[in-house]
Design goal:
Blueprint lengths: L1 H18 L10 E4 L2 H10 L2 H7 L1 H7 L10 H15 L3 H16 L7 E4 H16 L7 H4 L3 H12 L2 H24 L10 H17 L13 H5 L2 H31 L8 H4 L1 H10 L3 H5 L2 H12 L5 E6 L2 E6 H6 L1 H4 L36 H16 E6 L3 H8 L16 E6 L3
Parallel strand pairs: 1-4
Antiparallel strand pairs: 2-6, 3-4, 5-6
Helix pairs in contact: 4-9, 4-10, 5-11, 6-7, 6-20, 7-13, 9-10, 13-17, 13-20, 15-20, 17-20
The structure holds protoporphyrin IX containing FE and 2-acetamido-2-deoxy-beta-D-glucopyranose (NAG) (4 copies).
């Protein structure tokens, strides 16, 4: 009975949302959206302001002002224009990107064999590859980048309780900014390609005034400062923060799951895509690009990784004093849509003609991810290919972080920030 009433209430609220988003006052009331129809309706009908308000926590913690946190439409248009120009890679640029990824994995500052912590290793590879490969931070990133993932992690976690941690967040932020600033000073890119970071900062300058004229009716919104508009984190966060998670969960499913099954003495039921992955990776790396990816198993692996472990687990909108939390992960794992085996990593499910209706890793509508169509999947595939072709994970340390998966080898891996903090793997190089 309660369920029916609460469904009706939600339906009513959704209808109101659908009709009009009158005010954007923030509030503490949160409605969880687990139904794909409702999710799509909210995502398609909501506006920039309802996103920006919902994401003010991000603005506060990382002191960023990008389309996620800033509702100005002109600024967003230019931001996206710069971004699209720079992620529209031809084959040569993809080759360069893949070479950087491979170089990074093998770099002595990244590659330590033996027992290592999985997560920081994955974060380092991702950060250096995207900084050099797509954001054109070129020289010497290794010198200053050791601490950046740790700082971002730290700020992210503390931001959940911003008020309590304000001072230490600000301290970490100062350090983070310094590190990135230092890296950018060393990146005097020699080619004529534009450096994304500098372009973003330029348009921020240009729009400084109109950006600051924000709707009066808005509470909970604080105007961005010049620093916030100019920070390279505006673009580093959306790029890096999503990509390292994709790489992590692909590695967990492809490599770690296998080890866990062996430790459990389970019979392995490896699917064909994983069995032939070596060949797929070789083929992909010969000509890394989106058009190669489309017909390669890695494409299915990336899709399935983003289904079971969406890098953006929830998408938020605030409207009519309600914060809507769209449960992307829940929608992606719903057995009614995805079948009894919805919790299993099964790349081949994307082989069959499937309905993409219930699949929203990049959101939908006019504010969907700017990199969704080609760039993000290809970057993910290159990172995965670079790692799996260069190194092997031969063991995981038997500790808390993995015991429960060993006891129940079919469990999906947890998809929250600290879940694999303590995971230690034994890494070896593959001689080629
Ligand atoms: C697999 C990796 C990625 C995932 C899962 C992902 C996911 C998303 C999602 C869910 C949104 C919508 C957020 C919202 O409306 O609240 C979004 C927006 C966006 N993403 Fe991504 N993203 C990924 C990679 C990237 C990369 C690599 C870039 C930059 C090169 C990027 C740039 C953006 C931008 C600029 C927006 C805002 C778009 C707009 O306002 O029109 N994303 N992303
Ligand atoms: C990691 O695995 C390799 C290869 O199986 C093995 O030789 C090495 O001793 C292991 N390292 C550690 C620290 O156990
Ligand atoms: C940035 O570089 C300067 C000059 O090399 C150095 O003194 C400073 O410690 C660096 N800052 C950080 C946070 O690494
Ligand atoms: C893929 O390559 C790795 C490393 O060379 C090897 O251990 C593994 O057996 C290969 N898998 C297949 C299916 O060939
Ligand atoms: C293997 O998994 C089963 C459940 O499928 C569990 O009961 C058992 O304890 C696990 N074995 C080991 C060695 O962890």
């Amino acid at each position: 009975m309660f369920k029916i009433i609460s469904s009706l209430v939600i339906l009513l609220l959704l209808t109101i949302f659908y009709k009009k988003c009158n005010s954007h006052y923030s509030s503490s009331q949160v409605i969880l959206i687990t139904n794909i129809d409702d999710a799509r309706r909210i995502l398609i009908d909501s506006d920039l302001l309802s996103r920006a308000i919902a994401n003010q926590g991000l603005k506060k913690a990382f002191q960023i002002s990008n389309p996620f946190t800033n509702p100005n439409e002109n600024y967003r248009k230019e931001f996206l224009k710069v971004l699209h120009k720079t992620i529209d890679f031809d084959n040569n640029k993809w080759q360069r990107f893949a070479n950087i990824a491979l170089e990074t994995v093998k770099n002595e500052k990244v590659l330590k064999t033996g027992f290592i912590e999985l997560v920081p290793w994955v974060q380092k590879i991702t950060l250096i590859t995207v900084l050099r490969g797509s954001l054109r931070f070129d020289a010497n990133v290794y010198e200053v980048i050791d601490d950046v993932p740790k700082l971002i992690n730290d700020i992210w976690l503390k931001s959940k309780q911003y008020d309590k941690n304000q001072e230490s967040i600000q301290q970490s932020m100062r350090l983070l900014k310094n590190k990135i600033y230092n890296a950018s000073l060393m990146s005097q890119s020699k080619d004529e390609n534009i450096i994304v970071i500098q372009e973003i900062s330029k348009i921020a300058h240009k729009h400084l005034n109109d950006i600051q004229e924000l709707p009066q009716l808005t509470s909970g919104f604080i105007n961005p400062t010049k620093d916030e508009l100019e920070t390279p984190l505006n673009i580093i966060i959306p790029t890096y923060e999503t990509m390292w998670r994709v790489l992590l969960y692909a590695i967990l499913e492809i490599k770690v799951r296998e080890i866990l099954l062996i430790k459990n003495n389970s019979k392995m039921k490896k699917n064909n895509h994983l069995k032939n992955l070596n060949n797929s990776i070789d083929n992909f790396l010969k000509n890394p690009s989106y058009s190669t990816l489309k017909t390669n198993s890695l494409n299915l692996i990336v899709k399935e990784t983003l289904r079971l472990y969406p890098a953006t687990r929830s998408i938020f909108r605030t409207c009519n004093e309600i914060k809507y939390k769209i449960d992307v992960e829940g929608i992606h794992r719903d057995f009614k849509t995805w079948g009894d085996d919805s919790l299993r990593f099964k790349p081949e499910r994307f082989e069959k003609p499937y309905t993409s209706y219930s699949y929203i890793p990049f959101s939908v509508g006019k504010m969907k991810c700017a990199a969704a169509d080609k760039f993000a999947p290809t970057v993910a595939a290159i990172l995965i290919a670079a790692v799996l072709s260069s190194v092997d994970i031969v063991d995981v340390v038997d500790n808390e972080a993995i015991q429960k998966y060993q006891k129940n080898p079919d469990l999906p891996f947890e998809n929250h920030r600290l879940a694999f903090d303590k995971m230690i793997i034994n890494l070896t190089t593959l001689s080629k």
